[in-house]
Amino acid sequence: MREIEGEKMKKIISTLFICILANASLAAEAVPIQQTAVPKTTLNAASNYLDTVLMNTLSSLELIASTPEAKNGDWEGIKDYLKQLKEVTPGVYFYVLPDGNYYTVTLDYTNLNLSNRGYFKSLFADNTVMGYPIYSRSSGKKSALMAAPIATDGKVTGALGASIFLDELHDKLNREFDLPYDYTWFVLNSEGMMMLDNDSDFIFMNALTQGSESLHDAISEAIKTESGPVQYELDNLRHGYYQKLQNMEWWMFLAKIEGAKAVTPPQLKLSLDRFVPDLQNRLNHIDESLATLIEKSRVDVKKESEIRRLLNTLLDESSDIVEASFIDAKGIMRLVEPREYKNFENTDISSQKHIKAMLKKPEPLLSSGFTAVEHFTAVVVSRPIYDNKKRFSGSINLLIRPELLVDSLLKKTTIPDDYELWIMQPDSMILYDQDKGEIGRMLFSDPIYAGYGNLLKLSKKIVSDPAGEGSYIYLSPESNKKAIKNAIWQSVRLHNREWRVVLAYRPYEKK
């Protein structure tokens, strides 16, 4: 009987998912903007579309929360439902327990913890969460959380959540709306935080504190009401309309920019002479900030509060840092921030190469690449720390994801189709590649490169020389066919460890 009920519930949920897709499609069809479109009409269609996407996600989570699988804590059963939701709207879909430990569709049990998140107590007090802003240092993703508690016999036994990726939502809205160059749009919450923007770089900036005085005044008045006209100055005079989403404490704005000029996106040739110094400066800044803050703080290593304060200051200093930790003189990870990693505190990591190196000879270091607990390639910048008697007490480690660090540097640069950037360690580990599937591979030993002798030959030259040029044959990203590629490379260096930065292009393909 229970299996029959379960099948009925799955059919109901599947029907709801079909409705989500249908509603989203209908909303999207209504919003494309032409030069003659009426802004208020477009704004209405756009805000309804966004509200539909978010609220249908929440309704689906609430429906799943009512199933026997959810009430019984059956992760495999819950996962089947969440998979279907993930196919509709990109994001991280998870099931969290009362102690903060959680499972995701992608990773299953994560061994990470959410109990310190700002929404957690309210969620487990049997309240839904609608649009809570989340930034993941490990993935670089900005998202909005929709979450529903699972209640059994009047007690919350777990919760379901969807961290909806805002960059993907931003891209979809921009494609669907097809705004003329002299229009802009953005969405903010009741605290003035930009949840979405025509330019994704502005997501999670605060319009009330980081914009012009004119923008502050306009928004302060707008969020007191449901809808109306708006006018403000931000480089140019901008005027248009705003409208509150029907079910969310979010407001969408659509404005025309007076005097705006069309800008042709620059087809910039990526220059190693420009990029390599930028990358070197970024690495130096992270390392120098670590040294300065350790010296300036003069923490007492016996006081947890002082160590945690230092770790959080380091995280605030740079968004490139995924995780900051204190490793004691025995190689035990005593403290780690942010707190979602608390399950890893007091873990013995003395067998890791960079920890062994630090314990053997305490000095600043940049580690070799390795696979982090969240299954991405990472490196560590580390410096020793001493007690008040100048005895070695351990190290402060900063975990960095090279992929995100490099992507942030390239974000404003348009790389022509026939140019490719990749970064390799001298041991042949690929730390960065525009083809993300190659990151973390060992070029000299991975079977996928075995049939490309000239690539292997050139790579040995790249490893032995800090700068140079050469040619090789490998697959073209677009066609997946073999192509001749010319390459030039330079190096960045930190604490006796080097990265080779390679720029390749295809000279014989038609432009």
3D structure, described in words:
With 511 residues, the chain is an alpha+beta fold. The protein folds into four domains: 166 residues, Beta-Lactamase (2-Layer Sandwich), CATH 3.30.450.20; 79 residues, PAS domain (Beta-Lactamase, 2-Layer Sandwich), CATH 3.30.450; 130 residues, Beta-Lactamase (2-Layer Sandwich), CATH 3.30.450; 91 residues, PAS domain (Beta-Lactamase). It is 34% helix and 31% strand. The chain contains 13 helices and 23 strands. Strands 12, 13, 14, 15, 16, 17 and 18 form a seven-stranded antiparallel beta sheet that branches. A hairpin with a 6-residue loop joins strand 4 and strand 5. Helix 1 packs antiparallel against helix 2. It is globular. The N terminus is likely disordered.
